[in-house]
Design a protein that fits this description.
By secondary structure, chain A is of the alpha+beta class. The first copy, chain A, contains two helices and five strands; from the N terminus they run E-H-E-E-E-H-E. The first copy, chain A, has a single domain, classed as Alpha-Beta Plaits (2-Layer Sandwich), CATH 3.30.70. Chain A is 23% helix and 41% strand. Chains A, B, C: Pfam families: P-II.
Amino acid sequence: MNAIKLHPLKKLEIILAGEHKEFATDLLDRAGVKGYTIVGNLSGKGSHGLYGGHLMFNEDDVLIMIIAAVPQSLVDPLLDGFQPFFDAHSGVIFVSDIQVGRLAKFMA
Amino acid sequence: MNAIKLHPLKKLEIILAGEHKEFATDLLDRAGVKGYTIVGNLSGKGSHGLYGGHLMFNEDDVLIMIIAAVPQSLVDPLLDGFQPFFDAHSGVIFVSDIQVGRLAKFMA
Amino acid sequence: MNAIKLHPLKKLEIILAGEHKEFATDLLDRAGVKGYTIVGNLSGKGSHGLYGGHLMFNEDDVLIMIIAAVPQSLVDPLLDGFQPFFDAHSGVIFVSDIQVGRLAKFMA
């Protein structure tokens, strides 16, 4: 068995209404994100951050979660790029630490 | 580009049979969790913790995963609240660290 | 309320074409992984690490994500076991830290 060297990356989990999928993937592409995976047909519930108590999603909305692994250097530009969208639309971005075996797949 | 301040939260990933969805979302609502996202139509396999070796899920069971981002202070009450359920039913809860840009969406 | 003792584990998120599901679950079973959850019908895009710039997945491919919580001791053997597969096929494995309340469900 060979020792596997793991490399740290950041995972973004972007949850938003499915109708905005192209906006989000275009933004990821333009920022230089090399890949993403999309989980479809989610449901959810939440309150809107700016107008607390208002429904963010109805149970019936079709949500998607876009999962992308990116270098640390892309986290701030991506969050900044999505900020105007999330000022006007519902959804969230979770940022977390992951490790991957093959850094080349994720670096521009 | 503005610097984005990130705030730490805990992510709960609750995997259980779809028939128990309402029990779980009711528990989250009553605990003050402000939102969650549900991934449906999962499949899975596992052994039951109390009776090792018995099947936890069959390949054919319809499972769901409920994803919720909560403040640290809610983790113990939620795990405690789910404990009797998972004593009697199959499933798991994963707890992990995430960061979010907008804390207001997740705090009561 | 009882204090819940949490135990650290590693979460593997294995994203690959759905046609290779059995290969992956067989490998997990043989390595002693006690359970996993499969998210189906994903879509995605990415470039291949070995041949940068080539498409890893087309938007139309049916991808799956296999989620498994494993003890630290299984991470290297599993990454090692999947390495020849990912040398020849598209896909990724994300490794991250999680905590669980019931260690017995995840240990051989």
